[in-house]
């Protein structure tokens, strides 16, 4: 499986849904660039899931999360820590509860693991998180 792309995923949708997702994505991109001075990455699953309607949250929450992840990615080794951390959490759960199927373990870990890792990184980052609306993350 290759790297996720919003633009590619939109091409796989029927016209009506693709149009709605594109409009939502464009609205988010425009608002993000004005409010947070950052863009929306083409590999953002959160953006796609919000635009298609599987994530139900106000646009403000989505923008905050996207800006926060971009800030974390540029100031820490978030991607690698997240990958390693999720794997470690899953292995620990599977070791402690060997009868649970891997697919169930991964579903649990994917649901809560990223937030735990984000909070851990912020806790370790001594300068704290800046006001993301005032910086160019």
Write the layout of secondary structure elements.
Layout: H1 6-11, H2 15-35, H3 45-52, H4 59-75, H5 78-96, H6 102-124
Helix pairs in contact: 2-3, 5-6
The unreliable regions are none
Proportion of beta-strand residues: under 5%
Number of domains: 1
Return Rg in Å.
17 Å
Distance between the termini: 29 Å
What structural class do you assign from the helix and strand content? mainly alpha
Strand/helix succession: HHHHHH
Number of strands: 0
Helix percent reads 55-70%
Shape: flat
**Overall residue-averaged pLDDT value:** 88
The largest pleated sheet is described as: none
Question: What's the total helix number?
Answer: 6
How is this structure best described in words?
This protein has 137 residues and is mainly α. The protein has one domain. It is built from 6 helices and no strands. Helix 2 (15-35) packs across helix 3. The protein is flat. The chain starts with 5 loop residues before the first helix and ends in a 13-residue tail after the last helix. The mean pLDDT is 88.
Short description:
The chain is 69% helix and 0% strand. The protein has 137 residues and is an all-alpha fold. The protein is flat, with a radius of gyration of 17 Å.
Features:
flat, mainly alpha, 69% helix, 137 residues
């Amino acid at each position: 499986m290759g790297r996720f792309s919003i633009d590619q995923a939109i091409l796989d949708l029927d016209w009506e849904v693709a149009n709605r997702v594109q409009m939502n994505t464009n609205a988010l991109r425009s608002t993000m660039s004005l409010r947070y001075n950052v863009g929306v990455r083409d590999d953002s699953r959160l953006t796609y899931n919000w635009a298609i309607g599987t994530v139900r949250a106000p646009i403000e929450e989505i923008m905050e999360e996207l800006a926060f992840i971009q800030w974390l990615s540029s100031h820490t080794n978030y991607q690698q820590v997240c990958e390693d951390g999720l794997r470690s959490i899953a292995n620990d759960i599977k070791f402690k509860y060997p009868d649970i199927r891997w697919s169930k373990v991964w579903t649990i870990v994917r649901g809560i693991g990223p937030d735990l890792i984000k909070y851990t990184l912020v806790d370790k980052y001594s300068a704290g998180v800046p006001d993301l609306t005032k910086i160019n993350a």
